[in-house]
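Can you give me the bound-state structure? Components:
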Amino acid sequence: MLLFPEAALLLNETGAAIVRLCDGARSLDQIVDGLAEKFRSVDRDTLRLEVERFLELIRARGLLQ
Amino acid sequence: MTAAPRPYTLVAELTYRCPLRCVYCSNPVDFAHTRDELSTAEWCRTFSEAAELGVVQLHLSGGEPMLRDDLAELIRHARACDLYTNLITGGTLLDEEKLRRFRDAGLDHIQLSIQGAAMATAEMVAGVRSHRKKLEVAPLITAMGFPFTLNVVLHRLNIAEVPELIRLALELGAQRLELANTQFYAWGAENRRALMPTREQYLRAEEIALEAIAKYRGVLEIAFVQNDYLSGEPKPCMGGWGRSYMCVNPAGEVLPCHAAKVIPGLHFETVRDDSLARIWRESPGLNAFRGDGWMLEPCRTCVKKVIDFGGCRCQAFMLAGNAAEADPICHLSSHREAVESALNDSGADGALIYRDTKNSRRLTRDALAPLSQRKDDADTFNEP
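Here's the bound-state model for the whole set.
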């Protein structure tokens, strides 16, 4: 769950896995690497697209700096 | 009885004491009669029990929560319970040293209120000198690294300042701006005549806000909270009665929202009487409007009842005289004329009644007097 002042986002499994990897130190590639270990059946390009889409979504909500 | 759902949010009104006298205040009009605020230990137990029930988010509100000497201790305890902790403050009592203490205690977020963009407007609304101090405190909040929401309650007196308010939020480095139109309960209801904007004013402000929401996406999150009377859409008040929010007032009463005591005949326990879990599950007041068994027509058979829960119970009571009616804000309500007449009975000549102890005592002593005889209770802006 991602908490902010007036609400909370209940993340699905993929979203939660991405947020766990966002530690301020990892690059986008490293986040994709991390996910690839967890979701072995999904190819890297799809994962990368998913990560970009998700990060843009939470950035637009002001939840990512 | 409907099974109690999991609560997610606790609004803790730590005190009704406040140095400001805002005319839109949501504290009950009879706040001056409150004695015996919960102790530090009682609040801490309440936070622990809330977290055990599933609550993840805590708003420390008031009154002015800064007037509690134990605020840092309460924050530390809330964080130890793993609650996301938000301080809702007027800001006039904040300084660098206190902010550092709160940061060290683990505070997650600060919501600072201002009453307008122009000093004259802001201080007319707050009823005390306060605007400059708030503007001085905002940079300290950001310098300390706190995520920060600027909150402004909108009404006839300041709604034209929305463009300046957006600019100010950007200048002050806020991450969020709440443009929250006045909700007409408590002091907001007492001052409804003076605070209700015209339809033109409201639609203009909404248009500007919607443009800014798109323009500043990713930079400043802007929330525009509707004016019920002018929106025509009943709000899903508190996400449903006793569903995901609980409010504990300074005396420890467990409420579905801060306004609920306006509805007569409901009984609410205090955290001194019983465990929070048992109160949440069994309180007759909290169970009164859970689920949809209480609904009348047109709500009972309405497809939208799972979205708006029939609107606000307090507003139904205040405008239709029965808390189980549809919120008269809804176009399907048979009490729409109460909304229309409120809109017609508003104007720039409306007098302002400031939220302070003196007016609280006077209004609640005279509660049975007709409104027409209370007009002369309005007073003017003076320094405390």
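A couple of observations. The interface with chain A takes residues 8, 56-57, 84, 86, 108-109, 111, 147, 149, 175-176, 178, 217-221, 223 of chain B (CB under 8 Å). The first helix of chain B runs from residue 40 to 53.
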